[in-house]
Design goal:
Elements: H1 3-16, E1 23-24, E2 38-44, E3 49-55, E4 60-65, E5 78-83, E6 91-95, E7 109-112, E8 115-120, E9 123-128, E10 134-139, E11 148-153, E12 159-163, E13 167-169, E14 172-174, E15 180-184, E16 190-195, E17 202-207, E18 213-218, E19 225-230, E20 237-243, E21 248-253, E22 259-263, E23 268-273, E24 276-281, E25 291-293, E26 298-303, E27 308-313
Antiparallel strand pairs: 1-2, 2-27, 3-4, 4-5, 5-6, 7-8, 8-9, 9-10, 11-12, 12-15, 13-14, 15-16, 17-18, 18-19, 19-20, 21-22, 22-23, 23-24, 25-26, 26-27
Length: 320
């Protein structure tokens, strides 16, 4: 996002007090209409939407927006709230610089109790999921975090956070390094679960379905993997579940134990289980951190480069 557009956007929020800048509707995507999921709706007019998280209790979507380069500490990020039943009206929920909130380039989100946790470059920020009021900040700068990308609540109640080790800059995506998976305890103490090149630029993360650990997707540009980290021992054990063409981004578990994975390099969303991998949505533009409406079986797909979020109805459960 160019600085002048960012300035105009923030000024409009402050002066006009508008509730939202996104608009509903828009044409169906130009991708493959014969994929196994059905296009339902789109919302256009965002500024760098990166992550979608469904809150089943409130029946709303939270959508984080970077509004600028993903590594910029510019205070310009924001989060909207969208009713899941109607896809509107879109409401501003948290805006950087307003009501005591700080947001630079928010990405992955997780709900733990009444707190909406948001990964924001080198800090984890907590907001009241009903009011948007700031609640907590966990600082990862002492750990020299490069780019916190996603956050998940583990089966043990702790928070797990990926550091992809990349920079999202005006010259494109760089990789200064720092590939890690962190854990945050109840006292907000930060530890390292796993680190190193074997993680392949860890991006999306979710609690492992029917397991004791987390499932992670790698953003490696040439050969991405979906892998689990078994956390039952003193050292996390990595087991590869699937490999792909590169740049996996978001991951969401399904009730039957499979996972949905968004992939940049083939512009699609996959459904993956051990030994099985198929595309169910195609023709997307760099699909980011997806979310699933567990009540209706709808997946939300942020596409930052298009300033757009698409909603697709998942196909009925069937064998691969």
């Amino acid at each position: 996002m160019m600085p002048i557009l960012r300035t105009l956007f923030c000024a409009a929020l402050a002066v006009a007090g508008i509730a939202a800048c996104a608009r509903s509707g828009g044409p169906a995507p130009a991708g493959d209409r014969d994929a196994r999921a059905k296009f339902v709706h789109a919302i256009d007019g965002f500024y760098g939407p990166e992550s979608a998280k469904y809150d089943p209790e409130q029946d709303v979507w939270f959508i984080s927006n970077m509004l600028g380069y993903g590594s910029d500490h510019d205070g310009a990020g924001y989060i909207v709230r969208v009713p899941a039943a109607t896809f509107g009206p879109v409401q501003m929920f948290v805006v950087g610089g307003r009501n005591g909130a700080t947001l630079d380039a928010p990405k992955g989100m997780a709900i733990h109790g009444d707190t909406l946790w948001v990964a924001d470059i080198d800090v984890l920020r907590g907001f009241d999921r009903r009011t948007g009021a700031p609640l907590a900040t966990v600082d990862f700068r002492p750990q020299h975090a490069t780019l916190l990308n996603d956050v998940a609540v583990g089966h043990d109640g702790r928070l797990y956070v990926t550091d992809t080790g990349i920079g999202m800059t005006p010259i494109g995506v760089t990789h200064p390094g720092g590939d890690r998976v962190f854990v945050v305890g109840p006292d907000h103490a930060v530890g390292v679960v796993a680190a190193g090149q074997t993680l392949g630029r860890p991006n999306g993360i979710a609690a492992t379905p029917r397991g004791q650990g987390v499932t992670v997707v790698s953003f490696d540009p040439f050969r991405s993997t979906v892998y689990t980290l078994d956390l039952r021992g003193e050292t996390a054990q990595l087991k590869v579940m699937a490999t792909g063409k590169g740049k996996y981004d978001g991951i969401e578990p399904l009730p039957d134990g499979r996972v949905l994975v968004a992939c940049w390099n083939d512009s699609s969303v996959h459904v993956i289980s051990p030994g099985h991998d198929r595309q169910i949505i195609r023709g997307l533009s760099q699909p980011a951190d997806i979310g699933v409406d567990t009540r209706r079986g709808i997946v939300a797909i942020p596409q930052s480069v298009r300033d757009r979020v698409e909603f697709w109805k998942l196909p009925p459960e069937q064998g691969d």
